[in-house]
Amino acid sequence: MTKTGQKASRPPEVAEKGGVSRRQFLAGVGGLGVGALLGGSLVALALPDSVYAVPASQGYLLVDTKKCGGCESCMLTCSLVHTGKENLALSRIQVAKSALAGFPQDSAQYQCRQCPYPECVEACPTGAMHADEATGVRTVDEGKCIGCQRCISACPFTPSRVQWNFEERHAQKCDLCKNTPYWNREGGPGGTQACVAVCPMKAISFTAELPVQSDEGYEENMRNIHWSNLSFPIDDAGKVSAETYMRAKAAKPAGEDASTDSGKMA
Q1: 4Fe-4S ferredoxin-type domain: which residues (predicted)?
Q2: Contact of 43 with 34, CB cutoff 8 Å
Q3: Quick check: 220 and 66 in contact, CB under 8 A?
């Protein structure tokens, strides 16, 4: 596990040095079994990884920790549109707060990353956890879920982005509001996401492009010019550029600094 809470993982297609991937191994074993059944006339077959390819998701959620106020509106809304109940424990997006940490580490948001190589999908023995054929969104077929919770354990992130619905006894995860029976809006990648719509700080956004990911999260900067007035960095290098600083300073009324200084002296 890395220092940021993500379990060490790699795409299933990538083999260890000098070895084969798990999928290639299983494909080879399957080929050996067929060969044995047919009297050994067939050699072991190594099926191409494209046979097992999972389509990419057509949407992703981005969260800016520095904008989040920790109000938990996203959690309550997520639970409400999916289950008809305002229950934080049934939310598919999680907000964690720490009274001992300083800004912005005092609040953290945990949402499904819609991984390109979804280990939760690979771990499911029944196909309940799958990628939607139309949108690629990783989602759960509740009718097929047997409650083994392998998908929860397989998620490479901590806490797991797959949750256990303790009331209905099945796995659940963010589906980008594709299946929201208690909401009259169309969700999914082509629609509206409840958490995005309800967030008062606009800390959550939707994107159709796969964000660059690292152990520390998405390498996306969602801040704007107003943050430069508060001396917070707004560029991807973590600094307020000189151009941005001058643009923000020019936006202030002329003589504002002088009047402020004279007021202090008086």
Answers
A1: 102-134, 136-165
A2: no
A3: no
Within a domain: residue 242? yes
Q: Which two tokens stand for residue 6?
A: 């993500």
Q: How far apart are CA 255 and CA 261, in angstroms?
A: 10
Same domain, residue pair 114 and 43: no
Domain of residue 245, residue span: 221-252
The tens digit of pLDDT for each residue in 179-230 reads: 999 999 999 999 999 999 999 988 899 999 888 766 555 656 666 666 666 6
Question: Can you tell me the distance from the alpha carbon of 216 to that of 225, in angstroms, rounded to the nearest whole number?
Answer: 24
Residue 133 lies in a domain: yes
Matching residue, tokens 């409650």: 147
Q: How many residues does the structure list for the chain?
A: 266
Residues 148, 235 within the same domain? no
